[in-house]
Amino acid sequence: MADPPDPQARKIIHIDMDAFYASVEQRDNPALRGLPVAVGGSSRRGVVAAASYEARTFGVRSAMPSVTALRRCPDLVFVKPRFDVYQQVSRQIREIFAQHTDLIEPLSLDEAYLDVSSNRQAIASATQIAQLIRADIRRVTGLTASAGVSYNKFIAKLASDQNKPDGLCVIRPEQGAAFVAALPVKRFHGVGPRTADKMASFGIVTGADLAEKSEQWLLTHFGSWGSYLHGAARGIDNRPVRADRIRKSIGGERTYGEDIWAESALRDALESIADIVWERVERNEAQGRTVTLKARYADFQTITRARSLGQPVKGRSAFGQIGQSLIDQILPLQNGIRLLGLTLSGLSHSEDEDEADIRQPELPFG
Question: Do you know which InterPro entries this protein is assigned to (predicted)?
């Protein structure tokens, strides 16, 4: 068993805004307050970019097809996204962070890690700093944020989700291993539904189950990620907060409950994914030159096709067209498609963009 974490370890805060896009819309339009709100398009191929907590009680989630969201919540109110406003609010939040530390690692417009081990006000308590930040966010933006405070990034992120919305959770070094042991592994950042299913097939449901596996066993079954999982299951994560981390790609993928066989359905599915990915590209002010298609067949064979340009992809239409041209390369289908993904890489960013890679292994489309 690994030694417990050093009590003198770093002081990390993970800040996560509560239902960010939807909350901004409810803030700016009082008529929407208390209603189930979805930010996104309501058309047949529309996708929910964000859902208010009122909508979430009906099972509406981000990245869910709009038609599915409406079935779950017939009174759902759709609002078109205003990414320029979200970016402006995100800059206000970033300025609040910067009052306390330079070590800020954004993950998206609405969440970030902060290392406050050494901070501008020389405040000894990371919990106090988190309280000040949350109060300032409410005062400046009129929005609420949840915070996780701990000694590493892995647990701080888990903690920020523990008491949402408008919550604060503090996990001290001596509490870390027990906190992780009690959680389902599907709560762990990076463990998508497919990985959770794989773990369940080995009898791994909780952090305690994961901690029973040796590092070598985890390396055998989960590749290089096994070492990270071995430490995480014991409350150990030595990754630093990296203020200079550059995103490598932006993308998303979906696993389907029923395999796709028809070309028309495959092309429609790709357009839905392209909508989500391009919204991320725009709100993060990124540009990229390479588009990669990923397809996994019913027999779990996985293939990729990519196209690189001499200049950045110009707009959503071009992004979708390139994706469709990559679909051409895998037609006609010899087997059903169970997973489809699209990624933009070879990114460049505006000078204030230093966020981490947000290409997710799997998107919760519903």
Answer: DNA/RNA_pol_sf, DNA_pol_Y-fam_lit_finger_sf, DNA_pol_Y-fam_little_finger, DNA_polymerase-Y, DNApol_IV, Rev_trsase/Diguanyl_cyclase, UmuC
